[in-house]
Each structure stands twice: as structure tokens, then as C-alpha cells.
Design goal:
Length: 93
């Protein structure tokens, strides 16, 4: 975990350097999609654990936004996809 914290701090410092002197957005939108796919690629036994990791990461992003003065953030979760046949009612002949 120590290595991960170091990488995170380095990433945050690099990000602050890129943002220095730039105008900050007033609003940030986040679409939560791909957490289950990410969990599968990580080899997690339960893909829904990706939702927990995604939620934990959103907290970090919200903290970044607060620290940089971004006051409006919209977080949207992706809904499950349905097949086109499930959306189109069929008539019986």
C-alpha cells in the first residue's frame, strides 16, 4: 500500500502542476460506467465489487474538486443495458 500512496501523491502533484494557472471549470460531470468490467479485468471474484471501488474513487474526485474550487459536480450512474429486442414489444400473430 505504501507504493500505491506514493504513486497517488506523485500523480496528484503532477495534476496540480498541469492545472496551475489554468482556468478551472465551474462544473464537472462524472458518468460511472465500466466498474464491473474493471473488476473482471482485475480478476475480482465478484464483479459488483467494482462498484465499491468506483464509489471510493468518486470520493477522491469530489475532494479534488473541493480543493481546486470546483463547486458543482454531477455524478451519474450508468444503468444496465438492455438488448434491442427487450425494448421493442413484439406482436403475436
Amino acid at each position: 500500500m505504501l507504493g500505491r500512496q506514493l504513486i497517488y501523491r506523485l500523480y496528484a502533484r503532477r495534476l496540480r502542476g498541469h492545472l496551475a494557472g489554468c482556468p478551472m471549470p465551474r462544473h464537472v460531470g462524472i458518468i460511472m460506467d465500466g466498474n464491473r468490467r474493471w473488476a473482471r479485468r482485475q480478476g475480482m471474484p465478484e464483479p459488483s465489487l467494482g462498484h465499491k471501488y468506483g464509489a471510493d474513487h468518486v470520493e477522491n474526485v469530489l475532494n479534488w474538486c473541493e480543493k481546486t474550487g470546483i463547486r458543482h459536480v454531477t455524478v451519474s450512474s450508468a444503468r444496465p443495458r438492455t438488448s434491442p429486442t427487450a425494448q421493442t414489444p413484439r406482436s403475436r400473430s
